[in-house]
Structure formats: structure tokens, C-alpha cells
Specification:
Blueprint: H1 4-15, H2 24-30, H3 35-58, H4 62-79, H5 82-93, H6 99-121
Length: 122
Amino acid sequence: MVLPEAEARIFRDRLGGRRPAIDLDHLARQTLGDEALQRQVLSLFSRQSRDQIARLKAAMSLRERSEAAHALVGAARGVGAFSVADIASEIELSQAPVEGQLKALDRAAQSAREFIADFLAE
């Protein structure tokens, strides 16, 4: 079930040409419609996104940065956080500084975590 606030955010995002923070249709397909499992994986993703972004920021090498970004890409795609996944994928593949992408990733991940908090508060 989707909260009215979450529905409104999805509608605004679609009108603005942006993807929703979490694609609930994708999440439902991934979890075979199991709402308890949806809540569980969203909660896990919320924590994991914080951890992987901290790892990205602390990375001392391109390899460490790429590994952290790769883990985040997989987790984000699994729950339907496609904006997070797209930005993390850019970071994973980049050989150059990624300061701008990290800022965008922070914003996208924060939006996803807020969406998840609303969803879990239901």
C-alpha cells in the first residue's frame, strides 16, 4: 500500500519529468507483492545506502570507490531506486573526480530514504 504523501511525491516527480524516488511497481515485482518483504528490503536499503555512500566518500583509491558504487548500484536497482542506481553507476565507471556526482547521489539517496521513511511509517 502506498501512503498518500508517497503517491503525491510520485505524481509530482512524474509531472516534473523525474523518476520517483522508489519505483513501487518494480519493488512489488521483485518481492512478488509481499508487503512484509517490501518493508524489509526497503529498510535494509535505507541503511545500506548510508553505509555505501560513506564508503564512497572515504575511498582512497579508484578501486575502493568503484566497489562501493557497484554495491550501491545493485542494491538500488533491486528496490527500484533507479535515480540512485544511475548516479552510482556513473561514479563506478568514472576515472575522474566525482564531486558533482557525489552531491547528486546524496540528494537522490536522501530522497529515497525520505520516501522509505514515509512508506514504513504507514
